[in-house]
Amino acid sequence: MQLPELLKAGAVVVDVRSRGEFASGARKGSLNIPLDEFQRGSAKLDRTKPIILCCASGARSGLAEKLLRQQGFNQVFNAGSWTSIPG
User: Predicted confidence band at 33 (pLDDT cuts at 50, 70, 90)?
Assistant: First the structure.
């Protein structure tokens, strides 16, 4: 699935950048769960919805994707930079 289709399907956008980075600019409607808080913060994510992960370049969101898949999440997508997500 492409990002616009995932968003239409109710995907949750999770930005894993630091709180300061997120505050300086973020996609409207996205959640901020910094990577260093991700083990705890991921507990509040809905496993039934697609999850789109983003950060500044895609490196941290790639790590977050790996963590979620290890926790049994199946519908996880690394979008790379938060600026690449439509909307």
Answer: very high
Neighbours of 68 (CB within 10 A): 20
Which pTM value belongs to this model?
0.95
Pairing of strands 76-81, 31-32: unpaired
Cα 45 to Cα 30: distance, rounded to the nearest angstrom: 12
Domain 3-84 has CATH 3.30.1490.20: no
Collapsed DSSP state (helix, strand, coil) of residue 71: coil
Count CB neighbours of 56 within 10 A.
16
Contacts of 66 (CB under 8 A, 6+ apart): none
Q: Where are the domains of the chain?
A: 3-84
